[in-house]
Design brief:
It is built from 17 helices and no strands. By secondary structure, it is mainly alpha-helical. The chain is globular and about 70 Å long. The protein starts with a helix and ends with a helix.
Length: 422
């Protein structure tokens, strides 16, 4: 075998297979966004903003659009696994790439645990931690078999969840309990509450990052990714707005803010208690879809960081048959399973929100460097300011823990550079 053929064979086994088209990429993003937000974030957001919930949703959507636009431009320029880790490294320098990757991997690992615990809470509340661990093990096995299998399963999950949400909207808006005045913005809405609600709801919009982190597995990424990201975001926003209006019209902001299972409570208040088990099942399926997409994205960023030795190099291996980063997937699955067995879901979501916003702040700063045009720079500028503002509008515990973990990531970078210099 010649040297060139050996190099070619080595490249083919170290690179991921490009199998995803626009439809699959959109579905992967939807599977993460819809599962994370509709069933988990509406209650806390309503508690923070009151009747300003829809304003918080609008602010979150604007910031998410800016981030999506910046991510799409960067992903088309750098179609490799790793997302903002790669963009920060290429546009701003190795430190910023490391910080983005660290924020993503740690924050989204916490988010994976939160989604696994959501599955457990809906499927078997008395054994939520055990069910959560089982879900992580099962979905890690699915991801191990190849990204195309993961995309097919996510497509089924998204279809089921959208059907359930459509039923909720129809039942709520068509009931005698619906009152459009409950969804109106009141005069007592505070800016701080709206921003905190936006920060919590942004956690739900962040699923389009999965599309960018799968850049090495997308066909024709320069065309596919810029189309898939805004499509996924637009569909998710439409779903969020419809469900939020429907649930608010039945429960009102005060009752929604204290609802343990907002959508189930809404259909019960609408006079259709028979739909409650269906909504609970839909919530579990949605959380499974979100968990599937999250584990997929975290493992790909882990792969990219391991290739650059920001994480142990052993995690950079790609399976010769399945063409997936199998060691990274197993490592991520193991960590998430441990967290799912031990952590509290509220703490996991709060910390994850801070990490995700830090991640996108680096993405917008990276997109700023792509073009000197003031018009082109307006979107990443708004996105950067929005990310920083929403991050520090979160509850102070989330801010303190998130900032501490980011500081650990910065310190690890400094230690690694110091050891390399010696």
């Amino acid at each position: 075998m010649t040297r060139s053929s050996v190099a070619s064979a080595s490249a083919s086994t170290s690179e991921l297979r490009r199998t995803l088209g626009v439809r699959d990429a959109v579905v992967v993003g939807l599977g993460s966004m819809i599962g994370a937000g509709i069933f988990a974030a509406l209650g806390p957001a309503a508690r923070a903003a009151g009747s300003g919930l829809l304003l918080g949703l609008a602010v979150a959507a604007v910031v998410a659009y800016c981030n999506a636009t910046s991510s799409a431009r960067l992903a088309a320029r750098y179609p490799a696994s790793g997302g903002t880790y790669v963009y920060g490294r290429e546009r701003l320098g190795m430190f910023w790439g490391h910080l983005a990757g660290w924020a993503f991997v740690v924050g989204k690992t916490a988010s994976c645990a939160a989604m696994a615990l959501t599955v457990g809470a809906y499927v078997w509340p008395g054994q939520a931690h055990a069910v959560a661990v089982a879900a992580v093990v099962a979905l890690t096995a699915v991801n191990y078999g190849g990204v195309q299998k993961s995309a097919l399963l996510t497509r089924v999950i998204v279809a089921v969840v959208l059907a359930v949400l459509a039923a909720v909207v129809v039942v709520c808006l068509g009931s005698g309990a619906a009152d459009a005045g409950r969804a109106a913005v009141g005069g007592s809405v505070g800016v701080g509450g709206v921003l905190q609600a936006a920060g919590l709801l942004f956690f739900a919009f962040a699923g389009y990052a999965r599309i960018a982190t799968l850049g090495e597995e997308v066909r024709d990424p320069a065309r596919t990714i810029p189309r898939a990201i805004p499509l996924a975001l637009g569909i998710a926003l439409a779903v969020y707005a419809c469900v939020a209006v429907a649930v608010l019209s039945v429960l009102g902001p005060a009752e929604l803010g204290h609802a343990g299972a907002p959508l189930a409570d809404a259909v019960r208040a609408a006079g259709v208690p028979g739909l409650v088990p269906v909504v609970r099942a839909g919530a579990a399926v949605a959380a499974l879809g979100s968990l599937l997409a999250l584990v997929l994205g975290v493992s790909r960023t882990t792969l990219a960081m391991a290739r650059d030795r920001h994480l142990p190099g052993v995690l950079a291996a790609v399976h010769p048959r399945f063409q997936v980063p199998h060691r990274a997937e197993l490592a991520v699955g193991a960590v998430v399973a441990v967290l799912a067995a031990t952590v509290d879901v509220r703490g996991a979501i709060g910390f994850s929100s801070f990490g995700v916003l830090a991640y996108y702040a680096v993405a917008n700063a990276s997109a700023w460097t792509l073009d000197a045009s003031p018009v082109r720079r307006a979107v990443p500028a708004v996105g950067l300011v929005g990310c920083v503002t929403l991050a520090f509008a979160l509850p102070w515990v989330s801010v303190a823990v998130g900032a501490g973990v980011l500081a650990v990531g910065m310190a690890s970078y400094g230690v690694r550079r110091w050891l390399a210099a010696r």
